[in-house]
Amino acid sequence: MKRIFTVLLLSSLFYGCDVIKQLPRSTGVTETEAADGIKEALSQGLAGAVLKLNKEDGFFKDAFYKILIPEDARKIENTLRDLGLGSMVDKAILQINRGAEDAAGYAKPIFVNAIKSMSIQDAIGLVRNGDTSATHFFREKTTEQLIAAFTPVIKSSLDKVNATRYYGDMVNKYNSIPLVKKINPDLTGYVTMKATNALFDLVAKEEKNIRSNFAARTTDLLKKVFGGIL
Asked: How far apart are CA 57 and CA 80, in angstroms?
């Protein structure tokens, strides 16, 4: 009876009340299988979020996630454009986003490990909470790991695509102007936080989709766990 109750409770994450009523009284699945079903669905959503950013133009051509010049350095951009150096600014912005796109792929194993460590109690808690409760769970569990993993990767990625050099050239050019307030040319921390926040925001959107979109919940394991009613 406990086993059946847990399956019904966990399934509400994906099906809603109307679908839950369709579940047979005896599903023949264990609590572990039910938890694994949720983990697979979350893995699918999280992988989708990573893949959307971990590709060429994943950041750069997304109006919402595109990483721009740091806010405290926007005056540099305006000044350099006024001086006819807009191409230098554009190149720096492009390479900043290329670095973030390259690093985004490193989030996947961190997310996967967090999913694997999720207990049945964790899963039940996600069911009981709001539309982005899983995202909040992963933010709490993985933010420090992401920052620790992203920082060297972002630095390496920025160096690899010459973003550090392009941005450094831009800032140094600005800093050479007499009487201006000097700007720190270090990009790594800024891009790391922007990339991390973008991932969590997209994960939240994927979670909402999994919860509300019937088609987004279709996986082989879910079919097995929930009696093949999808």
From this structure: 25
CB-CB contact of 165 with 15 (8 Å): no
How crowded is residue 174: how many other Cβ atoms within 10 Å of its Cβ?
A: 21
Does 97 map to a domain? yes
Q: Highest-confidence range of 39-48, 99-108, 122-131, 212-221, by mean pLDDT?
A: 99-108
DSSP letter string over 133-171?
HHHHHHHHHHHHHHHHHHHHHHHHHHHHTTHHHHHHHHH
Residue 136's domain comprises 56-213
Query: The pTM is what?
Result: 0.70
Separation between Cα atoms, residue 180 and residue 48, nearest integer Å: 44
pLDDT confidence of residue 23 = 36
Q: Number of folded domains in the chain? A: 1
The pLDDT value recorded for residue 5 is 35
Q: Give 153's Cβ-side CA count (13 Å radius).
A: 19
* Residue whose tokens read 């900043």: 96
Question: Domain for residue 136, yes or no?
Answer: yes
pLDDT in the model for residue 206: 77
In a domain, 194, yes or no: yes
DSSP state of 71: G
202 in a domain, yes or no? Answer: yes
- pLDDT tens-digit map of 166-203: 777 878 888 888 877 887 777 888 889 999 999 889 88
C-alpha distances in Å from residue 167, one per residue of 52, 79, 83? 25, 14, 16
